[in-house]
Amino acid sequence: MFRELNACEQASCWNVGLTQVWIADETPGIYSIDGHMQVYHSHLAQLGKKHVSRQRLCLPGMMEFWVNNADGQPYFFVTGQVNEKLKEVLDGQIILHLNKLPVGCQPPHELEADLLLPRYTLVFDREAYSPKLFGQWWKSHRVVVITYRKNVKDHWEETEFTGQEIETEMGTTRMHLHEKEIEIGGVKMREVRKLNPDGHQTSVLTTTGNYRSY
């Protein structure tokens, strides 16, 4: 069976079809993106090398950038060289692929009715941090992001934070939160900070236009 499937050379179409079925079944509005290094153990290909922390070695391989639902269950992945950056793959492949899917984003009539409503939301870590790209993704695709802020140097007054009851998969927890509307590189965003018991402030950014204050 696998030989017949391979002979048809339709693996990409099959993958797209499966992705549509999985996304349509869950109708997500949030996609979590992360990258994983896949080590290559043979000698037949000349691949770039990258440090693999779990093995403490610099090894050849490929990167896989996974697109998951809000619970971390995968929909699909794209491959890249070990030196490719997450923001490059998001900009050049993942967003374009998601935009082509007929499911998994807000309906066109709802987007027309609410100009602040995002098509969908991407969640990723600091590796893809780029306020300039965040602004472009909103203007070109109506896509918003949620990510950690890099190089946080200022310190908000602790009196600004208020306690909030937050529902999580582990139950209800209490967090001290505060948010502000900020502008970085000409891009307006919301910055939400969580005040930790040791005084550290964890900063998260989002480009969504639906702004409210705690």
In words, what does this structure look like?
This protein is α+β, with helices and mostly antiparallel strands and 214 residues long. Strands 1, 2, 3, 4, 5, 6, 7, 8, 9 and 10 form a ten-stranded mixed sheet that branches. It is 26% helix and 37% strand. Residues 210-214 have low confidence and may be disordered. The termini are far apart. The protein contains five helices and ten strands, in the order ααββββααβαβββββ. Strand 7 and strand 8 (171-184) form a beta hairpin. The protein is globular.
What's the quick description here?
The protein is of the alpha+beta class and 214 residues long.
List keywords for this structure.
globular, ten-stranded mixed beta sheet, 26% helix, 214 residues
